Fold this sequence. Notes:
alpha+beta, conserved putative lor/sdh protein from methanococcus maripaludis s2 fold, Elongation Factor Tu (Ef-tu), domain 3, CATH 2.40.50.100, 3 domains, six-stranded antiparallel barrel, five-stranded antiparallel beta sheet, 4 helices, 23 strands, 23% helix
Amino acid sequence: MKKKLLLKLVAMVLLLQACHHKPIADKPSQPIAVRTQKVEFKEYAVPVISSGIVSSGKEARLSFKTGGVISRMYVKEGEMVHKGQLLAMLNMTEVDAQVTQLQSAYKKAKRDFLRADNLLKDSGTTKEQWENANTELQMSGESLKIASFNKQYSAIYSTVSGRVISKLGNEGEMAAPGMPVYIINSTNEEDWVIRVGVADKDWARIRLRDKAAVTLDAYPGQIFPATVSNIAQASDQGSGTFAIELKINPGSKKFANGLIGKVQILPTITDKVYLIPVAAIHEADAKSANVFSVSLNRKMATLHKVQVAYILKDMVAVRSGLENVQEVVTDGGAYLSDKLPLEIQH
């Protein structure tokens, strides 16, 4: 009897111990409070941003056609000039002597030809002698044209209206044929350009006549419209970038060579992307990231692995991974995992 009682007592103790150690079922986790934002699907072109130096797109490098001693230089470096203005002259002693000499030679050849022509009519000379006189007349006439042309270009006249940025000679110095004496930049508003360098991936997206906005340190807060006017077809060997030239409209502002500008080019070639806030991105690397959306019943988080196209100032452009997604989680996403309950706060 005592033995039976002892066995029952042991069984009860074991039962109580078992009840004491019985695992208690976990309470259902509380929904995580989150905020969401709509996904925007659109065609978008990420701007190409670079910087460069403003210069005149029309630069005149003016020189004498013939060599000689510089007699007069009428303008100084930094002065404004207008198209057709006389800038410099050579000493004309030698040039005038050549013209006078060739004028005399031409007159003589003309007299000889007229004499040969009259003699030919009277059969007083041969056809060959007449032809020789005619050839001499033509040659002396062409030589006179050359000398007169050289005399005309023994003076320098400005071919553009602009500013003298460099004066490379002085009165009394010897000027070599074709060597620049003045360098003038046009100041017409349609001639100002800014040149920038871009990477190959940006070069591939830029087209002629793409619009751009330019800001200059000289005019804080002012935006100048610009248009792509030239695209290099080979990269610079030193920097590895491609040169892009843009025509810039100064409006009423004064421009000068060497102004530093920041350029934002807006390519016409666009990508179809999903735009979402930066706050919606989690565990991102250079190409991919995690994003949470809301399930159809709006009670549960859904994890998406997305492909990042590029990052903007406060938005991220996603190339794929958000198909048919209407909104993504922004605030509270750091506490989520896939299929976890959530509660949307408004």
